Amino acid sequence: MSNALGIGGFKKGISGNSSGRSKRDLKLAELARQYTQEALDIVLEVMRGSDNPTDKLRAAMIILDRGHGRTPPSFEHSDQSRLPITPVLIIGGQKVSD
User: What is the DSSP string of the chain?
Assistant: First the structure.
């Protein structure tokens, strides 16, 4: 696989992570999930009880991000002295749109 310029990436048929995900990482994730409800309760407590609007907003954003997913980043191009940015869709190394 190569990037849009046709260079770099992984060689065909060779994994970039042949040993797979670390067992230690899986165990840590499993342990962390045991505290999900407690962590959510703390975030809810901050959202509902804090006098600091910034803390309340951040807590609300955490809940929304986890429950509905984060919004994709947006990019704004305001420099009129340069050419506009044109997105290009590439699937399987082939350009399919302009």
Answer: ---TTS--SPPTT--S-TT-S-HHHHHHHHHHHTTHHHHHHHHHHHHHH-S-HHHHHHHHHHHHHHHH-PPPP------TTSPPP----EETTEE---
**Per-residue confidence (pLDDT) for residue 41, from 0 to 100:** 96
For residue range 45-90, list pLDDT tens digits in order: 999 999 999 999 999 999 998 888 887 777 766 666 666 667 777 7
- Domain residue spans of the chain: 21-69
> Is this prediction's pTM over 0.70?
no
- Tell me what pLDDT residue 73 has: 74
Q: Using CA atoms, how far apart are residues 95 and 98, in angstroms rounded to an integer?
A: 8
